[in-house]
Write a structure and sequence with these properties.
There is one protein chain. This protein is α/β, with parallel strands linked by helices. The protein is 23% helix and 28% strand. The chain contains 7 helices and 19 strands. Strands 1, 2, 5, 6, 7, 8 and 19 form a 7-stranded mixed beta sheet that branches. Helix 1 runs parallel beside helix 2, helix 1 runs parallel beside helix 7 and helix 5 runs parallel beside helix 6. It is elongated and about 60 Å long. The two termini are 28 Å apart. About 2% of the residues have low confidence.
Length: 320
C-alpha cells in the first residue's frame, strides 16, 4: 500500500528499466514510487520482470563471473531502496492521463503523479506446453532470447520455433554456437522477409521442419531438454527429434493494454517515444525498456532507457 496519495514520479514496473529509473529519480530527490509488476492484466506476474525467470546472466557489465537473474534484480532493488525509492505491489487497473496530475488506480487504492515512467516490459509468446515452464529457467532448456542465451548452447543441436524475421535472426545467430539449428514452423511458407529467408536458407547449419509443430518437450532433472515430439500438421505423423535446447521465436507482447487509447503505440502495441528521448505522446509520461523496444530486448538497453526516462522526468518537472 503506498504511503501517500501523491508522488512527483511514479514508475510502473520493476525490471531493469524501472529500477534504473528509480535509482536516478531517487538520487535526484524525487522520492519515486515503484509499482512492482505494474502493467495491468497483461503484465508479467513476477516483480522484477523477465530476468526473474532467467538463471545465469553473463552479459550484464560488471559481473565477470556472471550473476543469477533474480540476484541481479534484487541488487538493483536494494540500490534503489537505499536512495529512498518506495515500493508497492499490485496490478495497475486503470490510468487517467488526460490531465495532470495523472491518476493511477491500483489494487484497492489510487495515487496521483506529476510524472509517470512506464517500464512495464513485454512478455514472450510461448507454446503453452506443460513442460515449458519446467525448462524455461534452465540452461539447456527453453529460451526466448538467442542473444541472451546462445552462448550456452555451444556444440549442441537446437530447435527454433517460428517463421518470421525474428525466427530467422535467432536461427542465424545460433549457428555461431550450435552445431545444428532446426527451424520448426507451422506452415510451408515462411513469414520472414525474402532477404532474411535467403540468408537463412543459405546457411548450411540450418535445417527445416515445415508444416510442423512442437507437440511435447522431452528432458528431465539434470539433463535439461533432450528432444521434442514434432507433429506434421499435414499428415498427422509424429517423430522424435533430439536436441539440447529450444528457442521460441514467435513474437513478444508489450504490456501496454492498460494504456490503449491514451498513449500512442505502433501496430504491435509498443509505445512510441520521440526520437532520442523517452517522451511519449503525453507530456509528462515517459517510457523505458522493452515496452518501447521490439528490436534489442536486453537488460542493459532497458537499464539505459530507464536512466533516460528518469532524467527526462526530472527535467520536465524542473520546467513545469
Amino acid at each position: 500500500m503506498p504511503s501517500k496519495g501523491h508522488y512527483r514520479v511514479v514508475i510502473l514496473g520493476s525490471g531493469p528499466a524501472g529500477l534504473t529509473a528509480a535509482v536516478y529519480a531517487s538520487r535526484a530527490e524525487l522520492s519515486p514510487l515503484v509499482v512492482e509488476g505494474g502493467g495491468g492484466e497483461d503484465a508479467t506476474d513476477v516483480p522484477g520482470g523477465q530476468l526473474m525467470l532467467t538463471t545465469d546472466v553473463d552479459n550484464y557489465p560488471g559481473f565477470p563471473e556472471g550473476i543469477l537473474g533474480p540476484e541481479l534484480m534484487e541488487r538493483m532493488r536494494k540500490q534503489a531502496a537505499r536512495f529512498g525509492t518506495e515500493f508497492t505491489s499490485g496490478e495497475l487497473r486503470k490510468v487517467a492521463l488526460s490531465q495532470r496530475p495523472f491518476q493511477l488506480m491500483l489494487d484497492g487504492t489510487s495515487v496521483t503523479a506529476d510524472t509517470v515512467i512506464v517500464a512495464t516490459g513485454a512478455r514472450a509468446k510461448w507454446l503453452n506446453l506443460p513442460e515449458e515452464l519446467e525448462f524455461r529457467t534452465k540452461i539447456g532448456g527453453v529460451s526466448a532470447c538467442a542473444t541472451c542465451d546462445g552462448f550456452f548452447y555451444k556444440g549442441k543441436d537446437v530447435l527454433v520455433v517460428g517463421g518470421g524475421d525474428t525466427a530467422m535472426e535467432e536461427a542465424t545467430f545460433l549457428t555461431k554456437f550450435a552445431d545444428k539449428v532446426t527451424v520448426v514452423h507451422r506452415r510451408q511458407e515462411l513469414r520472414a522477409s525474402k532477404a532474411m529467408q535467403t540468408r537463412a536458407h543459405g546457411n548450411p547449419k540450418i535445417a527445416w521442419l515445415l508444416d510442423s509443430a512442437v507437440e511435447k518437450i522431452h528432458g528431465g532433472p539434470g539433463q535439461g531438454v533432450t528432444g521434442a515430439t514434432i507433429k506434421n500438421l499435414k499428415t498427422g505423423a509424429t517423430s522424435e527429434v533430439a536436441c539440447g535446447g529450444i528457442f521460441m521465436a514467435i513474437g513478444h507482447i508489450p504490456n501496454t493494454g492498460v494504456f490503449e487509447g491514451q498513449l500512442k503505440s505502433d501496430d504491435q502495441g509498443y509505445l512510441l517515444v520521440h526520437d532520442g528521448t523517452s517522451a511519449t505522446s503525453v507530456p509528462g509520461v515517459f517510457a523505458a525498456g522493452d515496452v518501447t523496444d521490439h528490436r534489442y530486448r536486453q537488460a542493459i538497453t532497458a537499464a539505459g532507457t530507464g536512466c533516460m526516462a528518469a532524467i527526462d522526468a526530472e527535467r520536465f518537472l524542473s520546467h513545469s
